[in-house]
Amino acid sequence: MKKLNIIPVTLSLIILMTITSCEKDSPLINALTGEWEIQELTVDIYKEGVRKESHTEYLEKNKIIFRFEDGGSGSYYKDSESHSFTWTLNDSILVISNLTEFESDLQCEVTINGSTLIISYEEADDKDMAIMYEYILTGNKIG
Question: Is 28 part of a structural domain of the chain?
Answer without folding.
Answer: no
